[in-house]
Design goal:
Elements lengths: L1 E3 L4 E9 L5 E5 L7 E8 H7 L15 H12 L4 H4 L3 E5 L1 E5 L4 E9 L10 E4 L1 H12 L14 E8 L3 H7 L1
Parallel strand pairs: 5-9
Antiparallel strand pairs: 1-2, 2-7, 3-4, 4-9, 5-8, 6-7
Helix pairs in contact: 1-4, 2-4
């Protein structure tokens, strides 16, 4: 869901299904209003969420050896993807976990005038990982394994409370 606001940006709400035992939130020990969520989710949740790229976007060159290695691990190494891949880092303006529903809700702020430049929310790191997952699943080139012991999972880290001027420092 997307909601425009008066500053020329829009808020996008994204939901990710995640079981309570697969998510952990961390307070900001410096008490600066930041928060960190660390979770592991089946890779298809990334394709369903379709999180936009930014605030530190780079074009994902899908013809590299790195991409080939990501694809190979996803397709050929059941149960190893989250251990061979560092995952995806997301900056969100809001993040709230519903224990009963098993859902993490993210609010991402996007700059409508310059979506690839000054956007606050979205994928900060792990763009190739996300692009491979989305391509493989949406183009029906691959689907997750049925057997639980073979399922592919991906690590996801979500940051909140990061100010715009600090994004380039951490991205």
């Amino acid at each position: 869901m997307s909601t425009p606001n008066k500053t020329g940006s829009r808020s996008v709400t994204v939901s990710i299904k995640v079981q309570p035992e697969d998510i952990k939130s961390f307070r900001d020990p410096n008490q600066l209003g930041r928060k960190r969520f660390v979770l592991q989710v089946p890779v298809e949740e990334i394709a369903k969420a379709s999180i936009e790229f930014g605030p530190n976007p780079r074009n994902q060159d899908m013809g590299t050896r790195v991409v080939e290695a990501i694809q190979d691990t996803l397709i050929s190494r059941p149960a190893w993807f989250q251990y061979a891949n560092k995952g995806i880092l997301i900056n969100a303006q809001e993040a709230e976990y519903d224990n009963k529903g098993g859902e993490l809700r993210l609010v991402l702020e996007r700059d409508q005038k310059n979506p690839w430049g000054d956007s606050l929310g979205g994928n900060m790191d792990g763009g190739h990982t996300q692009a491979v997952i989305i391509q493989q699943i949406k183009e029906e080139l691959w689907q997750n394994f049925e057997e639980q012991k073979e399922k592919q999972w991906v690590n996801l880290e979500v940051l909140t409370g990061i100010q715009f001027e600090d994004l380039s420092f951490i991205a």
